[in-house]
Amino acid sequence: MTSSTSSSIPEAENSDRISGMPDDVLVHILSFLPTTISAKTSILSRRWRFLWAYAPNLIFKTDDDVDIVYRVMLLRRSENINTLRMTGCFPCTELQFDTWIAYAVMRDVRNLDLWVSGCRILPQCLLNCKTLVDLRLTNCSVIPEAGPICLPCLKNLHLIHARYESDESLPHLLSGCTMLEEFVLMLDEDSLSCYNISSPTIKRLTVHFHFSDSTSYECRLVIDTPALGYLEICDHFGKFAPLIDAEIHLEEGKIKKYDFLYCRSILNFIDWLGILNPKSMRLKVSAYLSEQTADSEFFAGNISFPTLTKLEVVADCFLVSQFLKKADNLEILIFHEVSEEVQSYVWVEPPQVPKCLLSHLRVVKFAFKVNEMNNFALVGFLLKNARVLEEMEVQYSGTSDTDEKINEMGLFERASKKCSVTFVKVVYR
Question: Is the pTM of this model over 0.70?
Protein backbone atom coordinates (compact mmCIF):
# COMPACT_ATOMS: atom_id res chain seq x y z
CA MET A 1 0.00 0.00 0.00
CA THR A 2 1.35 3.43 -0.94
CA SER A 3 1.15 6.44 1.32
CA SER A 4 0.29 8.94 -1.38
CA THR A 5 -2.06 11.85 -0.87
CA SER A 6 -4.20 13.56 -3.43
CA SER A 7 -2.13 15.72 -5.79
CA SER A 8 -4.04 18.84 -4.99
CA ILE A 9 -6.55 19.78 -2.32
CA PRO A 10 -9.30 22.11 -3.54
CA GLU A 11 -9.51 25.26 -1.52
CA ALA A 12 -13.19 25.86 -2.20
CA GLU A 13 -15.60 25.87 0.67
CA ASN A 14 -17.08 22.55 -0.50
CA SER A 15 -13.69 20.83 -0.74
CA ASP A 16 -13.42 17.07 -0.05
CA ARG A 17 -11.43 17.13 3.18
CA ILE A 18 -11.67 13.35 3.74
CA SER A 19 -10.05 12.50 0.39
CA GLY A 20 -7.29 14.93 1.29
CA MET A 21 -6.21 12.74 4.20
CA PRO A 22 -3.29 10.31 3.89
CA ASP A 23 -4.13 6.72 2.99
CA ASP A 24 -3.01 5.43 6.38
CA VAL A 25 -5.50 7.69 8.14
CA LEU A 26 -8.33 6.60 5.85
CA VAL A 27 -7.52 2.94 6.38
CA HIS A 28 -7.54 3.49 10.14
CA ILE A 29 -11.01 5.05 9.91
CA LEU A 30 -12.29 2.18 7.74
CA SER A 31 -11.01 -0.36 10.26
CA PHE A 32 -13.79 0.65 12.69
CA LEU A 33 -16.57 -0.10 10.19
CA PRO A 34 -18.15 -3.48 9.44
CA THR A 35 -16.15 -4.90 6.55
CA THR A 36 -19.07 -5.03 4.09
CA ILE A 37 -19.73 -1.32 4.68
CA SER A 38 -16.09 -0.29 4.35
CA ALA A 39 -15.89 -2.29 1.08
CA LYS A 40 -18.69 -0.17 -0.38
CA THR A 41 -16.37 2.86 -0.30
CA SER A 42 -14.60 1.32 -3.31
CA ILE A 43 -17.17 2.96 -5.61
CA LEU A 44 -16.25 6.48 -4.52
CA SER A 45 -13.22 6.84 -6.79
CA ARG A 46 -10.23 5.00 -8.21
CA ARG A 47 -8.19 5.95 -5.16
CA TRP A 48 -10.80 4.44 -2.82
CA ARG A 49 -11.13 1.22 -4.80
CA PHE A 50 -8.87 -0.92 -2.61
CA LEU A 51 -8.35 1.17 0.50
CA TRP A 52 -10.79 -1.03 2.43
CA ALA A 53 -8.65 -4.07 1.59
CA TYR A 54 -5.83 -2.71 3.77
CA ALA A 55 -7.99 -2.39 6.90
CA PRO A 56 -6.48 -4.56 9.66
CA ASN A 57 -9.88 -5.52 11.12
CA LEU A 58 -12.44 -7.90 9.60
CA ILE A 59 -15.90 -7.40 11.07
CA PHE A 60 -18.83 -9.49 9.82
CA LYS A 61 -22.45 -9.53 10.94
CA THR A 62 -25.06 -12.26 10.84
CA ASP A 63 -26.76 -10.87 7.71
CA ASP A 64 -23.53 -10.97 5.69
CA ASP A 65 -23.39 -13.68 3.05
CA VAL A 66 -20.80 -16.44 3.46
CA ASP A 67 -19.54 -15.80 -0.08
CA ILE A 68 -18.74 -12.23 0.93
CA VAL A 69 -16.42 -13.52 3.65
CA TYR A 70 -14.43 -15.55 1.10
CA ARG A 71 -14.33 -12.68 -1.39
CA VAL A 72 -13.06 -10.30 1.28
CA MET A 73 -10.35 -12.72 2.32
CA LEU A 74 -9.24 -13.19 -1.30
CA LEU A 75 -9.12 -9.46 -2.02
CA ARG A 76 -7.39 -8.34 1.20
CA ARG A 77 -3.98 -6.74 0.67
CA SER A 78 -2.89 -6.32 4.27
CA GLU A 79 -0.44 -8.98 5.44
CA ASN A 80 -1.68 -9.17 9.04
CA ILE A 81 -5.07 -9.22 10.76
CA ASN A 82 -5.52 -7.30 13.98
CA THR A 83 -9.12 -8.36 14.67
CA LEU A 84 -11.52 -10.94 13.24
CA ARG A 85 -15.06 -10.50 14.58
CA MET A 86 -18.14 -12.49 13.61
CA THR A 87 -21.22 -11.60 15.61
CA GLY A 88 -24.92 -12.39 15.85
CA CYS A 89 -24.70 -16.19 15.49
CA PHE A 90 -23.00 -15.99 12.10
CA PRO A 91 -24.09 -18.96 9.90
CA CYS A 92 -21.32 -21.30 8.75
CA THR A 93 -20.32 -24.93 8.42
CA GLU A 94 -17.51 -26.58 10.36
CA LEU A 95 -15.28 -26.53 7.26
CA GLN A 96 -15.92 -22.82 6.74
CA PHE A 97 -15.23 -22.11 10.41
CA ASP A 98 -11.91 -23.99 10.36
CA THR A 99 -10.90 -22.30 7.09
CA TRP A 100 -11.53 -18.79 8.40
CA ILE A 101 -9.69 -19.52 11.65
CA ALA A 102 -6.69 -20.92 9.76
CA TYR A 103 -6.70 -17.85 7.49
CA ALA A 104 -6.61 -15.53 10.52
CA VAL A 105 -3.95 -17.48 12.39
CA MET A 106 -1.67 -17.54 9.31
CA ARG A 107 -1.89 -13.74 9.31
CA ASP A 108 -0.92 -13.35 12.97
CA VAL A 109 -4.35 -12.40 14.27
CA ARG A 110 -4.32 -10.67 17.68
CA ASN A 111 -8.03 -10.50 18.55
CA LEU A 112 -10.74 -13.08 17.82
CA ASP A 113 -14.40 -12.48 18.67
CA LEU A 114 -16.56 -15.31 17.32
CA TRP A 115 -20.25 -16.02 17.64
CA VAL A 116 -21.14 -18.44 14.88
CA SER A 117 -23.86 -21.06 14.53
CA GLY A 118 -23.24 -24.51 15.99
CA CYS A 119 -20.63 -25.82 18.41
CA ARG A 120 -17.48 -27.48 17.17
CA ILE A 121 -14.12 -28.59 18.51
CA LEU A 122 -11.68 -25.70 18.29
CA PRO A 123 -9.02 -26.28 15.62
CA GLN A 124 -5.47 -26.91 16.75
CA CYS A 125 -4.15 -23.89 14.89
CA LEU A 126 -6.32 -21.66 17.10
CA LEU A 127 -5.28 -23.40 20.31
CA ASN A 128 -1.63 -22.88 19.39
CA CYS A 129 -1.76 -19.35 18.00
CA LYS A 130 1.39 -17.52 19.10
CA THR A 131 0.04 -14.01 18.43
CA LEU A 132 -3.46 -14.16 19.95
CA VAL A 133 -4.01 -11.61 22.75
CA ASP A 134 -7.80 -11.49 23.12
CA LEU A 135 -10.12 -14.49 22.51
CA ARG A 136 -13.91 -14.32 22.87
CA LEU A 137 -16.04 -17.35 21.96
CA THR A 138 -19.84 -17.28 22.20
CA ASN A 139 -22.05 -20.37 21.75
CA CYS A 140 -19.70 -21.87 19.20
CA SER A 141 -16.92 -23.83 20.84
CA VAL A 142 -16.21 -27.23 22.34
CA ILE A 143 -13.15 -27.12 24.58
CA PRO A 144 -11.08 -30.33 24.18
CA GLU A 145 -9.78 -32.34 27.13
CA ALA A 146 -6.48 -33.27 25.49
CA GLY A 147 -4.05 -32.17 22.80
CA PRO A 148 -1.39 -29.45 22.71
CA ILE A 149 -2.42 -25.94 23.78
CA CYS A 150 0.00 -23.02 23.67
CA LEU A 151 -1.32 -19.46 23.76
CA PRO A 152 1.73 -17.59 25.07
CA CYS A 153 0.40 -14.06 24.42
CA LEU A 154 -3.25 -14.52 25.40
CA LYS A 155 -4.26 -12.02 28.10
CA ASN A 156 -8.06 -11.91 27.82
CA LEU A 157 -10.29 -14.98 27.49
CA HIS A 158 -14.11 -14.96 27.35
CA LEU A 159 -15.97 -18.28 27.14
CA ILE A 160 -19.69 -17.61 26.72
CA HIS A 161 -21.84 -20.76 26.99
CA ALA A 162 -19.08 -22.99 25.68
CA ARG A 163 -19.20 -26.78 25.75
CA TYR A 164 -16.54 -29.01 27.30
CA GLU A 165 -15.51 -32.58 26.53
CA SER A 166 -14.96 -33.33 30.22
CA ASP A 167 -14.18 -31.77 33.60
CA GLU A 168 -10.52 -31.70 32.54
CA SER A 169 -11.15 -29.46 29.52
CA LEU A 170 -11.09 -26.11 31.32
CA PRO A 171 -7.94 -26.77 33.42
CA HIS A 172 -6.27 -28.12 30.28
CA LEU A 173 -7.08 -24.94 28.36
CA LEU A 174 -5.95 -22.62 31.16
CA SER A 175 -2.68 -24.50 31.55
CA GLY A 176 -1.70 -23.36 28.06
CA CYS A 177 -2.50 -19.68 28.74
CA THR A 178 0.65 -18.69 30.60
CA MET A 179 0.05 -14.90 30.40
CA LEU A 180 -3.73 -14.83 31.01
CA GLU A 181 -4.89 -11.82 33.07
CA GLU A 182 -8.67 -11.63 32.55
CA PHE A 183 -11.06 -14.60 32.37
CA VAL A 184 -14.81 -14.34 31.85
CA LEU A 185 -16.85 -17.55 32.13
CA MET A 186 -20.60 -17.74 31.49
CA LEU A 187 -22.32 -21.04 32.29
CA ASP A 188 -25.68 -22.66 31.62
CA GLU A 189 -27.36 -25.88 32.72
CA ASP A 190 -25.79 -27.90 29.89
CA SER A 191 -22.34 -27.30 31.28
CA LEU A 192 -20.06 -29.34 33.55
CA SER A 193 -20.48 -30.57 37.08
CA CYS A 194 -17.07 -29.15 38.11
CA TYR A 195 -15.22 -26.03 37.00
CA ASN A 196 -11.60 -25.88 38.07
CA ILE A 197 -10.18 -22.40 37.48
CA SER A 198 -6.49 -22.59 38.28
CA SER A 199 -4.00 -20.00 37.05
CA PRO A 200 -1.06 -18.18 38.67
CA THR A 201 -1.55 -15.11 36.43
CA ILE A 202 -5.30 -14.32 36.36
CA LYS A 203 -5.99 -10.89 37.88
CA ARG A 204 -9.68 -10.46 36.97
CA LEU A 205 -12.20 -13.30 37.12
CA THR A 206 -15.91 -13.13 36.25
CA VAL A 207 -18.25 -16.13 36.50
CA HIS A 208 -21.93 -15.85 35.56
CA PHE A 209 -24.51 -18.60 36.06
CA HIS A 210 -27.41 -18.66 33.59
CA PHE A 211 -29.71 -21.42 34.87
CA SER A 212 -33.42 -21.43 34.15
CA ASP A 213 -35.91 -21.32 37.01
CA SER A 214 -37.07 -24.86 36.28
CA THR A 215 -33.58 -26.33 36.26
CA SER A 216 -32.29 -28.35 39.18
CA TYR A 217 -28.55 -28.25 38.61
CA GLU A 218 -25.50 -28.49 40.83
CA CYS A 219 -21.94 -27.69 39.91
CA ARG A 220 -18.69 -27.29 41.78
CA LEU A 221 -16.58 -24.18 41.32
CA VAL A 222 -12.90 -24.40 42.34
CA ILE A 223 -10.86 -21.19 42.16
CA ASP A 224 -7.08 -21.21 42.62
CA THR A 225 -5.84 -17.82 41.43
CA PRO A 226 -3.18 -16.34 43.76
CA ALA A 227 -2.76 -13.17 41.64
CA LEU A 228 -6.49 -12.36 41.67
CA GLY A 229 -7.39 -8.73 42.29
CA TYR A 230 -11.04 -8.70 41.11
CA LEU A 231 -13.70 -11.40 41.51
CA GLU A 232 -17.29 -11.27 40.25
CA ILE A 233 -19.70 -14.19 40.65
CA CYS A 234 -23.26 -13.60 39.50
CA ASP A 235 -26.38 -15.79 39.55
CA HIS A 236 -28.85 -14.32 37.06
CA PHE A 237 -31.84 -16.24 38.36
CA GLY A 238 -31.24 -16.17 42.12
CA LYS A 239 -31.14 -19.96 42.13
CA PHE A 240 -27.84 -20.62 43.84
CA ALA A 241 -28.00 -24.09 45.37
CA PRO A 242 -26.48 -24.41 48.85
CA LEU A 243 -22.71 -24.42 48.64
CA ILE A 244 -21.51 -27.86 49.71
CA ASP A 245 -17.84 -27.16 50.28
CA ALA A 246 -15.80 -23.96 50.18
CA GLU A 247 -12.01 -23.78 50.48
CA ILE A 248 -10.47 -20.31 50.52
CA HIS A 249 -6.78 -19.54 50.94
CA LEU A 250 -5.94 -15.84 51.30
CA GLU A 251 -2.19 -15.44 51.43
CA GLU A 252 -0.72 -11.96 51.50
CA GLY A 253 2.55 -10.18 52.15
CA LYS A 254 3.50 -8.70 55.50
CA ILE A 255 2.28 -5.23 54.55
CA LYS A 256 -1.25 -6.34 53.68
CA LYS A 257 -1.59 -8.31 56.91
CA TYR A 258 -1.99 -5.03 58.75
CA ASP A 259 -3.82 -3.12 56.02
CA PHE A 260 -7.23 -1.93 57.23
CA LEU A 261 -8.96 -1.83 53.83
CA TYR A 262 -7.57 -5.21 52.85
CA CYS A 263 -8.81 -6.79 56.08
CA ARG A 264 -12.26 -5.32 55.50
CA SER A 265 -12.33 -6.69 51.95
CA ILE A 266 -11.63 -10.17 53.34
CA LEU A 267 -14.52 -9.91 55.77
CA ASN A 268 -16.84 -8.62 53.04
CA PHE A 269 -15.91 -11.66 50.99
CA ILE A 270 -16.77 -13.91 53.94
CA ASP A 271 -20.09 -12.06 54.15
CA TRP A 272 -20.81 -13.05 50.59
CA LEU A 273 -20.01 -16.70 51.33
CA GLY A 274 -22.73 -16.67 53.98
CA ILE A 275 -25.29 -15.94 51.27
CA LEU A 276 -24.36 -19.24 49.58
CA ASN A 277 -25.14 -21.27 52.73
CA PRO A 278 -22.02 -23.47 52.71
CA LYS A 279 -22.12 -26.79 54.56
CA SER A 280 -18.35 -27.14 54.94
CA MET A 281 -15.67 -24.48 54.83
CA ARG A 282 -11.88 -24.33 55.05
CA LEU A 283 -10.62 -20.78 55.44
CA LYS A 284 -6.97 -19.77 55.60
CA VAL A 285 -6.31 -16.12 56.40
CA SER A 286 -2.99 -14.74 57.60
CA ALA A 287 -4.15 -11.13 57.87
CA TYR A 288 -5.11 -9.75 61.27
CA LEU A 289 -8.88 -9.46 61.51
CA SER A 290 -9.45 -7.56 64.71
CA GLU A 291 -11.56 -4.78 66.12
CA GLN A 292 -10.33 -2.37 63.47
CA THR A 293 -12.64 -4.13 61.00
CA ALA A 294 -15.55 -4.48 63.38
CA ASP A 295 -17.85 -2.32 61.24
CA SER A 296 -18.05 -5.10 58.68
CA GLU A 297 -21.47 -6.72 58.29
CA PHE A 298 -19.83 -9.94 59.43
CA PHE A 299 -19.49 -8.51 62.93
CA ALA A 300 -22.64 -6.42 62.84
CA GLY A 301 -24.88 -9.46 63.12
CA ASN A 302 -26.34 -9.27 59.61
CA ILE A 303 -24.62 -12.37 58.25
CA SER A 304 -25.10 -15.92 59.49
CA PHE A 305 -24.09 -19.42 58.41
CA PRO A 306 -27.14 -21.55 59.30
CA THR A 307 -26.10 -24.53 57.15
CA LEU A 308 -22.43 -24.64 58.16
CA THR A 309 -21.66 -27.90 59.97
CA LYS A 310 -17.87 -28.17 59.49
CA LEU A 311 -15.37 -25.35 59.75
CA GLU A 312 -11.59 -25.47 59.46
CA VAL A 313 -9.87 -22.16 60.10
CA VAL A 314 -6.25 -21.14 59.79
CA ALA A 315 -6.22 -17.71 61.42
CA ASP A 316 -6.17 -16.16 64.87
CA CYS A 317 -8.93 -16.92 67.35
CA PHE A 318 -10.73 -13.64 66.68
CA LEU A 319 -12.23 -15.09 63.50
CA VAL A 320 -13.11 -18.31 65.31
CA SER A 321 -15.05 -16.41 67.95
CA GLN A 322 -17.15 -14.73 65.27
CA PHE A 323 -17.97 -17.98 63.49
CA LEU A 324 -19.10 -19.56 66.76
CA LYS A 325 -21.68 -16.78 67.03
CA LYS A 326 -22.81 -17.04 63.40
CA ALA A 327 -22.92 -20.82 62.81
CA ASP A 328 -25.71 -22.14 65.04
CA ASN A 329 -25.48 -25.69 63.63
CA LEU A 330 -21.72 -26.10 63.67
CA GLU A 331 -20.71 -29.68 64.54
CA ILE A 332 -16.99 -29.85 63.75
CA LEU A 333 -14.43 -27.12 64.44
CA ILE A 334 -10.78 -27.42 63.41
CA PHE A 335 -8.63 -24.45 64.37
CA HIS A 336 -4.99 -23.91 63.35
CA GLU A 337 -3.63 -20.77 64.95
CA VAL A 338 -1.68 -18.83 62.38
CA SER A 339 2.00 -18.63 63.29
CA GLU A 340 3.18 -15.03 63.48
CA GLU A 341 6.10 -13.07 64.83
CA VAL A 342 3.90 -10.94 67.06
CA GLN A 343 1.11 -11.63 69.47
CA SER A 344 -2.21 -12.38 67.76
CA TYR A 345 -5.66 -11.59 69.06
CA VAL A 346 -6.37 -12.90 72.55
CA TRP A 347 -9.60 -14.77 73.17
CA VAL A 348 -12.35 -12.78 74.88
CA GLU A 349 -15.29 -14.73 76.29
CA PRO A 350 -18.59 -13.71 74.63
CA PRO A 351 -21.38 -12.41 76.88
CA GLN A 352 -23.69 -15.22 75.71
CA VAL A 353 -22.90 -18.85 74.97
CA PRO A 354 -23.19 -19.48 71.20
CA LYS A 355 -26.11 -21.71 70.24
CA CYS A 356 -23.91 -24.26 68.48
CA LEU A 357 -22.21 -25.09 71.82
CA LEU A 358 -25.53 -25.88 73.43
CA SER A 359 -26.77 -28.48 70.98
CA HIS A 360 -24.50 -29.24 68.00
CA LEU A 361 -20.72 -28.95 68.48
CA ARG A 362 -19.36 -32.50 68.75
CA VAL A 363 -15.72 -32.40 67.63
CA VAL A 364 -13.04 -29.77 68.25
CA LYS A 365 -9.42 -29.96 67.11
CA PHE A 366 -6.80 -27.33 67.85
CA ALA A 367 -3.27 -26.81 66.57
CA PHE A 368 -1.33 -24.04 68.32
CA LYS A 369 1.93 -23.32 66.53
CA VAL A 370 3.31 -20.63 68.81
CA ASN A 371 5.57 -20.83 71.82
CA GLU A 372 3.17 -19.03 74.12
CA MET A 373 -0.33 -20.50 73.88
CA ASN A 374 -2.55 -17.50 74.34
CA ASN A 375 -5.76 -19.36 73.57
CA PHE A 376 -6.04 -21.55 76.68
CA ALA A 377 -9.08 -19.51 77.64
CA LEU A 378 -10.79 -20.53 74.39
CA VAL A 379 -10.22 -24.20 75.15
CA GLY A 380 -11.56 -23.74 78.65
CA PHE A 381 -14.64 -21.90 77.41
CA LEU A 382 -15.51 -24.64 74.92
CA LEU A 383 -15.06 -27.42 77.47
CA LYS A 384 -17.17 -25.55 79.98
CA ASN A 385 -20.09 -24.79 77.63
CA ALA A 386 -20.17 -27.39 74.83
CA ARG A 387 -22.90 -29.67 76.16
CA VAL A 388 -22.74 -32.38 73.44
CA LEU A 389 -18.99 -32.31 72.83
CA GLU A 390 -17.62 -35.79 72.23
CA GLU A 391 -14.00 -35.24 71.27
CA MET A 392 -11.37 -32.53 71.71
CA GLU A 393 -7.79 -32.80 70.49
CA VAL A 394 -5.18 -30.15 71.22
CA GLN A 395 -1.88 -30.14 69.34
CA TYR A 396 0.58 -27.70 70.79
CA SER A 397 4.21 -26.68 70.80
CA GLY A 398 6.05 -24.80 73.51
CA THR A 399 8.26 -24.89 76.56
CA SER A 400 8.04 -26.68 79.87
CA ASP A 401 5.85 -23.83 81.11
CA THR A 402 3.38 -24.72 78.37
CA ASP A 403 3.42 -28.33 79.55
CA GLU A 404 2.36 -27.19 82.99
CA LYS A 405 -0.55 -25.25 81.52
CA ILE A 406 -1.58 -28.31 79.53
CA ASN A 407 -1.77 -30.29 82.75
CA GLU A 408 -4.01 -27.58 84.18
CA MET A 409 -6.26 -27.79 81.13
CA GLY A 410 -6.83 -31.45 81.80
CA LEU A 411 -8.63 -30.40 84.98
CA PHE A 412 -10.94 -27.87 83.28
CA GLU A 413 -14.66 -28.18 83.94
CA ARG A 414 -16.54 -30.06 81.22
CA ALA A 415 -20.18 -29.60 80.33
CA SER A 416 -20.25 -32.90 78.44
CA LYS A 417 -19.54 -36.03 80.46
CA LYS A 418 -18.89 -37.97 77.21
CA CYS A 419 -16.09 -35.67 76.10
CA SER A 420 -12.60 -37.16 75.75
CA VAL A 421 -9.67 -34.72 75.63
CA THR A 422 -6.33 -35.58 74.02
CA PHE A 423 -3.19 -33.43 74.18
CA VAL A 424 -0.46 -33.94 71.58
CA LYS A 425 2.86 -32.12 71.83
CA VAL A 426 4.39 -31.35 68.45
CA VAL A 427 8.11 -30.68 68.07
CA TYR A 428 9.04 -28.55 65.04
CA ARG A 429 12.54 -28.97 63.69
Answer: no
